[in-house]
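Figure caption, in words: inputs first, then the predicted bound structure.
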Amino acid sequence: MTGYLQGKNIVVTGAGNGIGRAIALGCASAGANVVVADYGVSLDGSDPSSVVADSVVAEIEAAGGTALALASDISTMEGGAAAVQAAVDTWGSIDGAVCVAGILRERMIFNMTEEEFDDVIRVHLKGHFTVYKHASAIMRKQDTGGSLVGVTSGAFTGSTSQANYSAAKGGVVSLTKSAALALKRYGVNANCIAPSARTRMSENVPFEIEAGEPDDVAPLAVFLLGDTARHITAQIYTVIGPRISVWAQFGEVRSMFAPGGASWTPEGIEEALPRAIGTEEHPTMALLAQREAERQTSQAKT
Ligand SMILES: NC(=O)c1ccc[n+]([C@@H]2O[C@H](COP(=O)([O-])OP(=O)(O)OC[C@H]3O[C@@H](n4cnc5c(N)ncnc54)[C@H](O)[C@@H]3O)[C@@H](O)[C@H]2O)c1
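Bound structure (nicotinamide-adenine-dinucleotide present):
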């Protein structure tokens, strides 16, 4: 990746661990100056520390790169502004931002507390807004535009025990697509990466998942931040190990119209909907049914 981002100034949030660390190292080895923005918290967002941000900066510098550490909470407006301003104050501009910071508070929706919901939405979703807002305000005034990269998850389509996380990641998709639409005319692109990689966040998933390594994610982030990808915007790319997939743009798939342009009645819909437009089963429903059948079989045996 040497030289791919030569001279660019990039903020990476959540850069102290896992996927963010791999992206920060990838950006630095591609020639970028990197703000390593990480609050240094545990998986649930507690116990902040500056140690991880400092150690990633030390790694980058030891490899001959340029980076600075910022251990601020990017879910606050001040934290997002500070991360962007650090790049501008130190190196003169902000060319890209990758929002990787995240926490987990898993719980079934009926047991989830308000705090568990709010904290996850705040770190993931607001943590993108604080950076996008401050970065785009500067990027739109630069001749060179810029790049925003959000980190979502396949879980944005729904997740049994992570309603807060799923909602936050769905919000990241909508926020990023909105940024892409608003910023196109200013030469700023905005895309999402949906990774799956072995990190402390993924190690407790109670079933088998397809996962690669954090280093597999970095080249896609570097590409999306580069000049040759500037025309690519409002996309979601999955990256897992050697596989990169693009998601469909969302849209309605089938429509039906009330006869004679009248309004529908519930009875009319009951009669027409199943054969005219039907339903699309959520892809996870079949998996849940299979797990339930397995659970019942093993319960019957005991
Ligand atoms: N690991 C996976 O398989 C996977 C799958 C889908 C999505 N993701 C997403 O990728 C991102 C990175 O995940 P990871 O697995 O590398 O997790 P990780 O726990 O290894 O790293 C997350 C980092 O974010 C930092 N952070 C948390 N709250 C912060 C805050 N308020 N301000 C600044 N920094 C903060 C943490 O200190 C930590 O260093 C997350 O957004 C996660 O949701 C990961």
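Residues 13 and 40 are 11 Å apart (CA to CA).
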